[in-house]
Amino acid sequence: MAVPSLSKAERAYIQASLQASPPLRADGRSLLDFRTVLLETGVAPLANGSAKLNIGKAPQEGGGGTEVIAATKLEVEDVETGDGVDGGRLVCTVTCSPSAYPHLSTNALDELQYDLTILLHQTLSHPTLHPNNLGILPHKKSWLLSLDLVILADAGNVVDALFMAARAALWDTKVPRTRPLQYQSRKAGDALKNADAMEVEGLPEITSAFDTRDMARAAADFELPDYWDEGEVLEGRDRWPVCVTLNLLPPSHFLDATLLEEASTPIRLLLAYSFPHKSQPNLQAMRFIGSGEVVLTQLKALNADGEKYARSLFDSLETKLRDEDIRRNVKARDKFAVR
Amino acid sequence: MISFASFPVPSQNETQGMTRHHPDVEDDIDMDEGFEEGFHRLTSPGEPLTSSQAFMRGHGTYIDNDEVISSVAGTVERVNKLISVRAVRSRYNPEVGDLVVGRITEVQPRRWKVDANSRQDAVLMLSSVNLPGGVQRRKLESDELQMRTFFEEGDLLVAEVQAFFADGAMSLHTRSLRYGKLRNGQLVTVPPALIRRLKSHFLSLPCGVDLILGLNGYIWASKHVKQSEQEGEEAFDAEAVYSNKNDDIDDATRLAISRVSNIIRILAAHFIPLTDTLLLDAYEWAVEQEGDVKDLLQADIGDAMIATIAARD
Predict the structure, then answer these.
(1) Where is there biased composition of kind Polar residues (chain B) (predicted)?
(2) What domains sit in chain A, N to C, each tagged with a CATH number?
(3) How far apart are the C-alpha atoms of A160 and A65, rounded to whole Å?
(4) What is the C-alpha to C-alpha distance for residues A257 and A263, in angstroms, rounded to an integer?
(5) In A74-216, which ranges are continuous DSSP H helix?
(6) Does the N-terminal or the C-terminal CB of chain B have fewer CB atoms within 10 Å?
(7) Domains of chain B and any CATH numbers
(8) Within the 141-200 window of chain B, which residues sit less than 8 Å (CB to CB) from chain A?
(9) From first to last of its 339 residues, what are the pLDDT tens digits of chain A?
């Protein structure tokens, strides 16, 4: 938020413009227009999946707009020791760069980060969205999928940007292929016995007298086979939700508010929808932000509208993400072949 | 409703990797130590300027290996043996007499703190504003208690730089009928380097929009107020000057304000200094195109506008 506060005259001016007929916004958009969204996936080479997103960057200029970077990293967790959860888990963290909120104190910044983290974590780690391929070995090892988001600049509508960036990064995430291993105890006189996908490596012919490992217990582990790509995509990656923020200014509402518009809106409604294939859309999260009031009867209409907006946002984002996949895989391969 | 695009890719032309210079400067590059006074040379961060044996380093430079090296992109300036670099993009450097647009950030005893895009917040003393009841009136204790009725946090105002404090913070004053609280419009922010010192910083465009070009890069675009109807023309009217209420603004004026704001944003994005003739040309062009106001923010239309108005000059 570059503008910490707003004068009463400015607020009245913005509200009156929005409520005029036809409504007019400061930059001439109509109520339901988004600013241009720039998106690029695969920006962080060391992450399993990453995306950079900017809403409303000024053309020709270096800065401007809400800028968010999202990246995912997979870590192995031990389920038996109690660190991990069987089947894997997802942890979201949102960090706000102090340069995005220069007027906020450290404590206020921490609170904001915490609020956004809770919102994203609760929505994205919901069981209905959980990808199936985060387990490695049942009851033993699983992946911890950490999703980190950094807000580099805030020019309004930061929650929508966060959800879009999160979706893009999760879409881009590749889970490394794993192969289970098993060390089999050697019984006297027995040859090595291979289980299904088991492999025994470097077991000495003669068991050392100093080997104190408990060979009776079948200790299972896994290895990462060398493979030409980085792994397979997350299962159910088209389920990840998108969020639309409806800025309510009775009798109408508008999308993609700038900071000034946000500051002059009494209440905002956040709706996160996911659109799974061949089934009904799911409302994954809903939040009110602000001090205004909404009558319950309006809520149904708002939800219906929100679903419509989310659908179109979802479709555009999906198209863009597929384009990005093509850009990074097919086109990159062609370019390499030409060389 | 929503459109996605990719981040612009840095152009990969054959000149990449070579240092390029503006044609005007190209000849001077070979001229070693060509720091005549009053002569401006462009430099970029990390570029060695001169030897630290012969010159002293000023703002925007540092010394490494007996060389004065620029730490910012900007113009090299020399005063006697002092070399400094004035950054192209920086915060506003105030000078006495400058007209600035600012926003109140804090109300303190007998003073307001004002954000004026400078390195420090500016100060507006209670004694340097016009108080209700005439200019000659004595300052009362009751005024101190009701400072928020004049300006409160978030309010925008136009003022003049009066003096500097010892720490470099500027002191403002609004002791003129043209200065004071702002209403009936919206704020546009541009880099301060783009606002030149003009004969008058109060522009009145024929499309019914008044502009106040603050030298600190804050520009106030508002509905045109007739000279005769300006507050406090005959007698100082505190009600009107410190009012928070907007006048009635018709849709055409709102549209014009939005259009002017977008034009300013585009000019700023192309780093073109603002002048009144330029703004007028651009506004005429935008109206001729008969496009929507929002179309202006698309890159190609903005480029077309810049190309047209650059050709007219």
Answers:
(1) 9-18
(2) 13-178+224-338 (3.30.230.70), 179-223 (no CATH)
(3) 13
(4) 9
(5) 106-124, 158-172
(6) C
(7) 34-87 (2.40.50.100)
(8) 153-156, 181-187
(9) 345 678 888 889 888 888 887 888 887 788 898 988 999 998 998 899 999 999 988 766 666 789 999 999 999 998 888 888 888 899 999 999 998 998 889 999 999 999 999 999 999 999 989 998 888 888 888 999 999 999 999 988 999 999 999 999 999 999 988 888 877 665 554 444 444 444 445 444 445 555 444 443 455 788 888 766 678 888 888 899 999 999 998 888 999 998 888 888 889 999 999 998 888 898 999 999 988 888 888 899 999 999 999 999 999 999 999 998 888 887 778 878 877
Q: Please give the distance of CA B158 from its chain centroid, rounded to a whole number.
A: 12
Q: Which residues in chain A are closer than 8 Å to B251, comparing Cβ atoms?
A: 20, 22, 24
- Contact residues, chain A, for B252 at CB < 8 Å: none
Nearest Cβ partner for A9 among B4, B183, B268: B183
Residue B159 token pair: 């003022």
Helix spans in chain A (H)? 8-19, 106-124, 158-172, 259-263, 296-326, 332-338
Q: CA-CA distance, A285 to A163, in Å (whole number)?
A: 11
- Cβ neighbours, 10 Å, residue A12: 17
Write down the residue that tokens 């506003």 correspond to.
B92
Contact B183 A39 (CB under 8 A): no
CA dist B216 to A273, B263, B273, Å?
Answer: 43, 18, 13
Tell me the residue ranges of DSSP E strands in chain A: 37-41, 49-55, 66-78, 89-96, 135-137, 141-153, 174-175, 179-182, 220-223, 232-233, 242-249, 252-254, 267-274, 282-290
Residue-level length of chain A: 339
Q: Quote the CA–CA distance of B77 and B80 in Å, as a whole number.
A: 10
Torsion angles phi and psi, residue B304, rounded to 5: -60, -40
Residue holding tokens 């910012």? B72
> Which residues does chain B have within 8 Å of residue A4's beta carbon, measured at their own beta carbons?
105, 154
Going across the sheet that includes B61-64, the strands are B48-51, B67-70, B61-64
